[in-house]
């Protein structure tokens, strides 16, 4: 397979890149054994494919850059991100997901794995379609990311995103953070009106999660790291943000070109938050905001409550 | 909180005391944040606290409960009758 790749590579190097790309059917890409291509060949092919407009070729280039630690290519990847963020907008809606987005997934994976420093403004702009990657890049930025994280806090739709941003902010709380925490606080109190001698009722809770389907559209693309934030520690996770409710990061290589790797664990994360002292319902932003306020005031979450009857 | 139904007056007083306690707790939290420089004076003044008071009524004899009216518009009251036979 590798020998065949080398032969094809030789042909490729002798042929103008545009012609190679234009004439080669998609099935060939799979047959080339690109995943096992030797580093020398990969470096040469990376040079060509990094400049191509074909998103799949760009993804392969990013794959090799990451696999072979081609740090010298990081500036080019940063240029690609800069261009993307300057022209792309949109939402993380899957129906709006393009091949260009998929290619950027590979580019971001490479940048994250090579610990590149992406400008905070660009990292923030990525949040709409690449929320986890954006948070990872912001967490590693050498710039002041307080304002960017506050804006993400305001627009986060996923609980783990909100918690991750909040945990990062809590490490060095910027102006406006405390007010935002207070704003999300909602005390849900229950007053049970009982007959004399009547016992207290027990309450339960429930929920369901829809599982995500397989991505069958990117069969000839390289493996890419899928990222997920979780409130649960697992053998495959690393600590992302500390706090009373820490957040863990999981990178799972695969061929699922999605902005966020969704698994059944994502659903289970929510259930894990249900604590005995919170009688029903799943955890809310209000719960997490309360724990963070307690954290800022020096209390452990088990010893801090805003609702006096739940103490 | 559990409240054994006796009279309208007792019900309203218990509910008001309960809500007042929550409000005081939240105000104290805001003051603590301000004291630590995590909240400005202006932010502390405009901080609104949302309290949702859910009335669960599992009584066998469900006499009409009196309305609970609070001065704070951020306090929402909902009522839910609970049938023990279910």
List keywords for this structure.
heterodimer, A: 311 residues, mainly alpha, B: 86 residues, alpha+beta, two-stranded parallel sheet, 2 helices, 40% helix
Query: Over all CA atoms, what is the radius of gyration of chain B?
Result: 17 Å
Structural class of chain A: mainly alpha
Described by the principal axes of the CA atoms, the overall outline of chain A is elongated
Q: How would a textbook summarize the main sheet of chain B? A: 2 strands, parallel
Q: Strand percentage of chain B, roughly?
A: 15-25%
Number of domains of chain B: 1
Oligomer: heterodimer
Number of helices of chain A: 14
What topology, given as strand order, has the largest sheet of chain B? 2-3
**Total number of beta strands of chain A:** 4
Order of helices and strands of chain A: HHHHHHHHHHHHEEEEHH
Give the terminus-to-terminus CA distance of chain B. 22 Å
Question: Helices and strands of chain B, in N-to-C order?
Answer: EHHEE
**First and last CA, distance of chain A:** 65 Å
Topology at a glance:
The complex is a heterodimer of chains A (311) and B (86).
Chain A: H1 2-14, H2 17-23, H3 26-31, H4 39-49, H5 55-67, H6 74-87, H7 99-113, H8 120-125, H9 131-140, H10 146-155, H11 159-171, H12 177-184, E1 186-194, E2 224-230, E3 237-241, E4 247-254, H13 264-272, H14 285-296
Antiparallel strand pairs in A: 2-4, 3-4
Chain B: E1 2-4, H1 8-35, H2 41-46, E2 50-57, E3 75-81
Parallel strand pairs in B: 2-3
């Amino acid at each position: 397979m590798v020998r065949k790749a080398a032969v094809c590579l030789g042909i490729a190097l002798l042929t103008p890149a545009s012609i190679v790309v234009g004439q080669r059917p998609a099935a060939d890409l799979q047959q080339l054994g690109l995943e096992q291509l030797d580093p020398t060949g990969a470096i040469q092919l990376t040079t060509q494919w990094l400049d191509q407009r074909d998103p799949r070729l760009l993804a392969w280039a990013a794959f090799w850059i990451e696999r072979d630690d081609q740090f010298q290519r990081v500036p080019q990847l940063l240029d690609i991100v800069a261009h993307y963020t300057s022209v792309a907008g949109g939402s993380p809606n899957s129906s709006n997901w393009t091949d260009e987005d998929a290619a950027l997934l590979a580019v971001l994976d490479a940048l994250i794995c090579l610990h590149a420093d992406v400008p905070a403004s660009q990292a923030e702009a990525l949040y709409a379609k690449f929320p986890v990657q954006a948070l990872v890049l912001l967490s590693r930025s050498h710039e002041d990311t307080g304002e960017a994280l506050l804006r993400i806090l305001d627009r986060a739709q996923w609980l783990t995103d909100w918690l991750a941003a909040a945990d990062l902010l809590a490490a060095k709380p910027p102006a406006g953070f405390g007010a935002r925490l207070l704003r999300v606080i909602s005390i849900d109190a229950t007053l049970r009106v009982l007959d004399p001698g009547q016992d207290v009722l027990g309450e339960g809770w429930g929920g369901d999660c829809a599982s995500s389907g397989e991505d069958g559209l990117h069969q000839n693309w390289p493996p890419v790291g899928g990222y997920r934030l979780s409130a649960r520690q697992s053998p495959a996770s690393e600590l992302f943000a500390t706090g009373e409710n820490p957040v863990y990061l999981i990178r799972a290589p695969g061929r699922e070109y999605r902005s966020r790797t969704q698994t059944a664990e994502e659903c289970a994360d929510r259930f894990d938050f249900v604590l005995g002292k919170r009688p029903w319902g799943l955890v809310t932003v209000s719960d997490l905001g309360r724990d963070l306020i307690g954290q800022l005031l020096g209390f452990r979450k088990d010893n801090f409550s805003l609702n006096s009857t739940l103490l | 909180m559990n409240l054994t139904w006796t009279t309208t007056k007792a019900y309203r007083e218990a509910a008001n005391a309960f809500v007042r306690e929550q409000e005081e707790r939240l105000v104290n939290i805001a003051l603590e944040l301000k004291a630590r420089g995590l909240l400005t004076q202006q932010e502390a003044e405009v901080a609104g606290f949302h309290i949702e008071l859910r009335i669960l009524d599992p009584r066998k004899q469900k006499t009409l409960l009196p309305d609970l009216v609070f001065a704070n518009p951020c306090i929402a009251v909902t009522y839910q009758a609970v049938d023990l036979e279910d």
